[in-house]
Amino acid sequence: MKLTVLGCYAATPRTITNPTSQVLEIQNRLFLIDCGEGTQVQLRKNKIKFSKINHIFISHLHGDHCYGLIGLVSTFMLLNRENDLHIYGPKGIKEIITLQLRLSNSWTAYSLFFHELTSTESEVIFEDEKVIVKTIPLKHRIYTNGFLFQEKTGERKLDINAVQEYEIETCYFQNIKNGKDIVLDNGKVIPNNLLSHDPIPPKSYAFCSDTVFDESIVPLIENVDVLYHESTFLDSEEHLSERTMHSTAKQAATIALKANVATLILGHYSTRYDTIDLFKTEAQTIFPNVLLADDGKSFNFE
Amino acid sequence: MKLTVLGCYAATPRTITNPTSQVLEIQNRLFLIDCGEGTQVQLRKNKIKFSKINHIFISHLHGDHCYGLIGLVSTFMLLNRENDLHIYGPKGIKEIITLQLRLSNSWTAYSLFFHELTSTESEVIFEDEKVIVKTIPLKHRIYTNGFLFQEKTGERKLDINAVQEYEIETCYFQNIKNGKDIVLDNGKVIPNNLLSHDPIPPKSYAFCSDTVFDESIVPLIENVDVLYHESTFLDSEEHLSERTMHSTAKQAATIALKANVATLILGHYSTRYDTIDLFKTEAQTIFPNVLLADDGKSFNFE
After folding, report:
1. B-chain residue closest to A141, CA distance
2. Interface test mutation site (partner B, options A60, A104, A107, A116, max chain B beta carbons within 10 A)
3. Inter-chain CB pairs, A–B, below 8 Å
4. Does residue B205 contact residue B24 with C-beta atoms inside 8 Å?
5. Angstrom distance (rounded) from CA A294 to CA B54
6. B106 and A63: CB-CB below 8 Å?
């Protein structure tokens, strides 16, 4: 599992900082999360193949999370994309994109599927054989969802030495990977745990931006490997975080602690601060394992 | 008169090239012409004061000319803009902007005026005491206008030595600047040309992008000081220019020649070519005074 942060600053794009967008690579799938203005250029700068992006998740319709989407959809068209593109986001996102395509008389040759979200309860919005994606309803000034990406538990790993020792035929291997015990020709039962190892524990990533401090998300993100939680402000600006429905670094760390996550990544920084190191220092007073997102930074979680 | 090119490349924004946007400074007014994705960052890079932009002209609704507009409108809001903002562009532009503001629940505190264009004849769309702006109907795949910016002829310049010599009182100075002759107390008439000099000749700038080669614009742009004419392709790709309704460098130069302009600026280059110098070389086989637009380049025309 690898996270590449394309942009992680609040509000407007600036000369050297970009609004929210990130790419999660999980089980060889690339998921684009949010798409602020300039995302397509950030994708190029970070050498991420446009053609590998088939699913885009938009948390909410504030500009710093979605104004780059129409440009990306159009660029896919100019690049002669053929793959389907799935866009998951708040109701209204389809109208925003299709209105602009219609007025520019530029329909995509590839198929564009919109999955508009309206629920205020967590729901499964994507699932295939390896990955499941659920919404994390957040509290912000407009309808907003975070997203929880979970690998499914894989097959058990065959113990090659053990299966050779018991002279088990290859036609039974899949049963062993599926966790089944094996009955030998002599009637003897070999328990599965003597023939296989536990699978690699599935990884999980929770993206929570933008949101006011809200403990009700804790049960949804409990024990995730990596939590990205917005920290627009420091504790000294807590009054602003309440008013604008954002979080402080301390509040993000409190959520991480209560949810017992392994790693917390902070982001969505206000540009009012001289250095983002202040966010880490503040968060670590509550929760130790804190990383700082920054534009163009990648995190490997293997 | 000063032109700052923020972006002048066709199609999609890339790592080092930007889609169309430029700032024309004329008679202390700043006019933003087109607004591709990333324009607000280009404004910052070129240190152009956001608060001085009160009029934005959008040629057409293809993404590389307008996808940065919603972001700029939103950023103006975040910067607590108070001045009115006037947007001139094809019908539909109001719906694109207001739909996105409505869905993000982010109304501007400043007043936003849309001047939607539908005419296929040239028309005056802006006028104040110093400047007049007219449309230049262009032929492209969708409804498109170029824009002609003209300084109005200024007042005549007082000849200080002459008015002192004739002992003319200051209360008559404005009449002299307005071109009036002066009658002295003794009845003698002093012709205006002995008391004043001709005003500085008014400057004019024509922006023509995007368009197929179209001689019908020549009468509208005749004798302008500066013509920006798109040259997406070179002559070797003339078949593409016809199909996509763009122009070649040679065609742009032909328009410049026929319209007897003083200076031609080329831009809107396809990124398929290794160097933009090829455009200049080709255009100069037809018309000598050719300049090349490039992102971040400024041109002073005093």
Report:
1. B105
2. A104
3. 97
4. yes
5. 34
6. yes
In angstroms, the separation between the Cα of residue B226 and the nearest Cα of chain A is: 29
In whole angstroms, what separates CA B200 from the centre of its chain? Answer: 20
CA distance B140 to chain A (A): 11
Residue written as token pair 């071109």: B179
Low-confidence ranges of chain B (pLDDT < 50): none
pLDDT at B302: 83
Quote the crossing angle between the two packed helices A93-103 and B93-103, to the nearest 10°: 170
CA distance A266 to chain B (A): 23
- CA torsion A60-A62-A66-A70 (nearest 10°) is 120
| Residue A12: how many other CB atoms lie within 10 Å | 24
- Distance separating alpha carbons of residues A295 and A245, to the nearest angstrom: 23
User: Do B13 and A61 lie within an 8 Å CB cutoff?
Assistant: no
Tokens standing for residue B178: 């307005």
Measured between beta carbons, the chain B residues lying within 8 angstroms of A62 are: 104, 106
The highest-level CATH class for domain B2-154+200-300 is: alpha beta
For the stretch B65-108, pLDDT in tens is: 999 999 999 999 999 999 999 999 999 999 999 999 999 999 89
Distance from C-alpha of B83 to C-alpha of B85, rounded to nearest angstrom: 6
Interface contact A62-B11, CB threshold 8 A:
no
As a whole number, mean pLDDT of residues A252-280 equals 97
Over its C-alpha atoms, chain B yields an Rg (Å, rounded) of 22
Please state, in angstroms and rounded to a whole number, the distance separating the CA atoms of residues B265 and B226: 7
The pLDDT assigned to A170 comes to 94
Output the six-digit token pair for A254: 């409190």
Q: Find where tokens 């539908």 sit.
A: B118
- How far apart CA A189 and CA A65 sit, in angstroms, is 56
Asked if B228 and B8 count as a contact pair (C-beta separation under 8 A), the reply is no
Domain definitions of chain A by residue range:
2-154+200-300, 157-197
A64 catalytic residue (yes or no): yes
Nearest neighbour of B11 by CB, restricted to A14, A44, A78? A78
What is the pLDDT averaged over residues A262-275? 97
Residue of B nearest to A17 (CA): B41
**Contact A106/B41, CB-based, under 8 Å?**
no
Output the average pLDDT for chain B: 97
| ipTM of the complex model | 0.93
Which residues, at least 6 apart from A106, have a Cβ–Cβ distance to it below 8 Å?
A74, A77, B62, B63
**DSSP percent split of chain A into helix, strand, coil, nearest 5:** 30, 30, 40
pLDDT tens-digit readout, A174-196: 999 999 999 998 999 999 999 99
Question: Closest partner residue to B15 among A41, A99, A106, by Cβ?
Answer: A41
Residue A148 CA to its chain's centroid (Å): 6
Q: Do B104 and A61 touch (CB under 8 A)?
A: yes
Strands B290-292 vs B144-151: parallel, antiparallel or unpaired: unpaired
